[in-house]
Amino acid sequence: MLSAVTFVTIGQTPRTDLVPELVASLPASTRVRELGALDGLGPESVAALAPEDGEARLVTRMADGSQAVVSHRRMQARLQELLDRLEQDGDTVTVLLCTGAFPGLKAPGLFLDAQHLVDHGVAGLCAELRRIGLLLPLAEQADGFHWRPAPDQEVRVSHASPYQADRFTDAGNELSDCDVVVMHCMGYTEEQRRRVADASGRPVLLARRLVASAVAQLL
User: Fold this and answer.
1) Nearest-angstrom CA–CA distance, 193 and 219
2) Do 97 and 136 reside in the same domain of the chain?
3) Which of 12, 168, 186, 216 could staple 195 via S-S, CB 3.0–4.6 A?
C-alpha cells in the first residue's frame, strides 16, 4: 500500500508555490518529501547549467522564488543522478514535477512523470477538439516542443513565465480563437489560469491539476 510521496523538481526546494497545493488533495497521513536537482547550488553553479546557443532550455524556480533557465541536456543528467540515489521503497511513489520530456529517465519503485500524465491527459480530454492553445514559459521553447497533436488538430503557441507573472492577459488574448488552452508547466498557478481564462474566454487546463488528480488516485 502506498502511503508516501517524493516530489522531485528540476529547481530548488521547498516548492512553496506548488507542493502544498498537491498535498492538499492527498490523505492527511501521507508522508511527503521534496528533492530538487539544484538543491545546495549557489548562483555560479546554477549559471554553469545555462543552455548554450540553440540548446533546449527549461525554466524552473529557485528557493528564493527567482527564475532560472537551465539546459535540458544537463538537467536530464542531474535528474538521473538524483533518482539513482533514491532507495527502493515499496510504499512510496516518486513524482517528477516537470512537464519537459526526459526520455529514458528511471527511478526505483513507482515513478510518475508529469510530462506523460499531462500529455496523455490532454490527448484524452481534447481528442474531439480542433484547435489547441499551448502556453509555455519561454517563447524559445515553441520550436521543437515535444507535445504533438493528432493529425487533424492545430496548435497555437503563446508564452508567459510562471515565475515572473508576466503577459498572462496577452497570452490569453493571443489564444482566444482556440477551443481549449493548455498551460504546459507545473509552475503555472490557479490565479494565472484564471487570468488566461478571463482573457481568452476559453476553457483552460492546468498541468498541476492533472498531476494532482493522478497522484491522489494512488494514495
Assistant:
1) 26
2) no
3) 168
159 and 89 co-located in one domain: no
Cβ contacts of 186 within 8 Å, gap of 6 or more: 18, 97, 98, 99, 114, 207, 208, 211
d(CA 206, CA 181): 9
pTM over 0.90: yes
pLDDT by 10-residue block (mean), the chain, 219 residues:
92 96 94 96 94 91 94 94 87 94 92 95 93 94 82 94 91 98 96 97 97 93
By three-state DSSP, how is residue 67 classified? strand
Strands of 19-88, DSSP E: 31-36, 57-61, 67-71
What is the three-class DSSP state of 47?
helix
Per the CB < 8 A criterion, the answer to whether 65 and 72 are in contact is no
- Domain span at residue 152 reads 118-207
